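FYI - complex with zinc ion, inputs then prediction.
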Amino acid sequence: MALLPIIVAPDPRLKIKCEAVEEVTKDLRKLAADMLETMYDAPGIGLAAPQVGVPKRLIVVDVAKGEDEPHPYQMINPEISWASDELLDYEEGCLSLPEHYAQVTRPEKIRVSFLDLTGQPQEIEASGILATCIQHEMDHLDGVLFVDHLSKLRRDLIIRKLKKYKASLPPEKLEA
Ligand code: K1U
Ligand code: ZN
């Protein structure tokens, strides 16, 4: 397995709509395993393929707390088939927006269908932080970042700070 470099915003690769996965191949399974390893290493609770430069509809999520057993999800072509009217406010972070956090409001419960790594269709119901994280990761597949849910003023402020942060990094610390 391998750790993958995570793209930091602003970057055009984080703003594109990703393509559906047509076939679940060995290479895709390797990518999903590398993404999980990268997510645990960061550490984070989710990661989407475009964050590692792959414009495909693949996400990984694990919201299990440190002392609990890991509970990873690897979802190919995820789709939300139902969302609750009840909403949840959650202070979100993003590995592509390091050290920035903001409260985002999303449906509290969702039903999501996806393909697993054997290509079999699956459906789960998620609530709380798991639902929030899946929605955040699915946003990435459509080129949407959590700052896109904020006012233009707050979004522009965060993006301006990230531009400065990236400009201050030595070239070897910038991802490809
Ligand atoms: O970059 C990402 O998409 C991952 C992001 C996912 C996320 C966090 C919070 C709400 C919604 C989605 C992160 O994992 S940021 C890091 C983080 O939240 C965290 C890190 C270590 C322990 C617990 C949380
Ligand atoms: Zn993110």
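Residues 12-170 form a domain with the Peptide Deformylase fold (CATH 3.90.45.10). The two ends are 19 Å apart (CA to CA).
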